[in-house]
Amino acid sequence: MQIEIKDLSYVYGKKTPFEKAALHGVSLTVSEGDSVGIIGSTGSGKSTLIQHLNGLIKLQSGSLKVFDIDLSAKKPDYKTLRKKLGMLFQYPEYQLFADTVEADVKFGPVNFGFSKEDADKAAKEAIEMVGLDYDEVKDRSPLELSGGQKRRAAIAGILACRPEILVLDEPTAGLDPAGKKDMLDLIRSLKGSFLKSVITVSHNMDEIAEYCDRVILLHDGVLLSDATPTELFYGEDVEKYGLSLPHVVKIVKLLRDKGVVIPEVLNEKDLVKELKLYLERGRKNA
Amino acid sequence: MRDVAFGQYYPSNSVLHKADPRTKLIAGIVYIVAVFLCDSYWSYLACFSFLLIACLVSKVPLKSILKSIKAVLFVVLITVIINVFCYKTGTVLWSWWILTVTDGGLIFASKMAMRLIFLVVSTSLITFTTTPVTLTDGLESLLTPLKWIKFPVHDVAIIMSIALRFIPSFTEEIDKIMMAQKARGACFDNGNIFKRAKALLPVLIPLFVSAFRRADELAMAMDARCYNATDKRTKMKRLKFAWRDLFLALATAVFLALIIMLKCGFFGLL
Ligand SMILES: Nc1ncnc2c1ncn2[C@@H]1O[C@H](COP(=O)(O)OP(=O)(O)OP(=O)(O)O)[C@@H](O)[C@H]1O
Ligand SMILES: [Mg+2]
Known about the structure:
The complex is a heterodimer of chains A (286) and B (270).
Chain A: E1 3-12, E2 20-30, E3 35-39, H1 46-53, E4 61-66, E5 69-70, H2 78-84, E6 85-88, H3 101-111, H4 116-129, H5 134-137, H6 147-159, E7 165-169, H7 177-190, E8 197-201, H8 205-211, E9 214-219, E10 222-227, H9 229-235, H10 247-257, H11 268-285
Helix pairs in contact in A: 3-4, 3-6, 4-6
Chain B: H1 15-18, H2 21-37, H3 41-58, H4 62-86, E1 92-96, E2 99-102, H5 103-129, H6 132-143, H7 153-183, H8 193-199, H9 201-224, H10 243-263
Antiparallel strand pairs in B: 1-2
Helix pairs in contact in B: 2-5, 2-10, 3-5, 3-10, 4-5, 6-7, 7-9
The complex binds adenosine-5'-triphosphate and magnesium ion (MG).
Residues 46-47, 90, 169 of chain A line the site of magnesium ion.
């Protein structure tokens, strides 16, 4: 078990007039190899939940264990935790600060005590991993890069630390369609190397349906469902919670309404395959 | 970052919250003048009671008010220490090397400390009970006479209200950037002062970058809506004096009169 959350609750601005409960008794576990998606309408507590995972938010009630590091302890080992659990924030390009892209990417490894050679090597590999041209960008200021390149540089800064778990808060927000796909494919391709599990917060149901094998649904700080994408999107009425269905699921539902017999598929490729099978069956029967 | 109590609005529906910002500003200035007129213990007691009543009326919890004192405690302490050692009248209580402590010094230092605390509490009481926007509206209205000497009152007011408006955005932004850098192993709370200052660079640089970006965007948005700072601008919410303002003004006037009487020793007995 890599992450174990039990009965986690959190209130912002406790004992002030601005008090706001963000999480109510959330429990879940993540094991090695999981690809977990977290969905929920705005303000449902997704960011609050994931910020707990590497101790950026102090535990108020409940218990939380990540890699056997107990976050309810008095002084948890944050350094190890944050090295092993990388976190990419919403719009991470705003965290870039160093003079050069290379220095920025090295910021994490240096903080985590990599030796100079290791840090250089990790930075180079990470920059190449995210699809930037190392020799071209390494000496440029991160502020000169385009939006998409900045996002890549920010991700490189996280990947250079070689995290075992990667937590992404809306990694594709504000990217063009090709950029979105590149990003998700990159993360998928990394899984299985140093990266063991991925947790993604997203408002894009298509991405969740395609890239996650488990989906957690939050609503007003309560965990409503923890299921596979098929179970969730075909079993629950997610539209009730201000979310939409992945478009493939919408099409399948429309087809079923018209009497087409088709199994529960989640991506376009499977949909096309099933439709073709269905048509062939129809032709045979005719 | 969000725990900065000093100068933060505390929503409630007390008389002080509803009062006109101009009344509160003038009462605040009068109070500060009164505090500096104080010399006898009785006048300090009067200042303290007036402030305490104001705090109670405002319904702001005492805890929040105490927090605002905490923010300046360091300054108060320094003042006390300097005054204790530099004010050398009265009988010597203790002396060592060049340092001497006299009873006069002790009394003077404690009076200074009280003055400072009164100042801080009274001004934060104004900001606790007035939203920043109302406060600048009040200030703008009070400064209107300066227009005669061609002082750009409105521009200054709009600059102030924009600055105030962005304080919460910035604290939020700082929070976010700090979190992002902490996630990359940055550490802000150990090492000596130089180390800490250096550790703040990864926060300050993105903060400035985003501040300039925001300023640019705001200027553009204001331009797009044809903002111009001419005299003819009207207000959506106009300030109006009400009965409670008269009452507050009277209370402050009585208080000031009391302090002046105490100062001039009308009660020769005291
Ligand atoms: N720093 C904060 N101070 C006070 N309240 C906060 C803070 N951050 C979040 N909240 C509140 O807590 C609740 C949960 O916020 P959170 O950011 O976790 O939502 P989210 O699911 O990530 O939303 P989004 O999809 O918009 O990112 C919201 O109601 C929000 O207003
Ligand atoms: Mg969020």
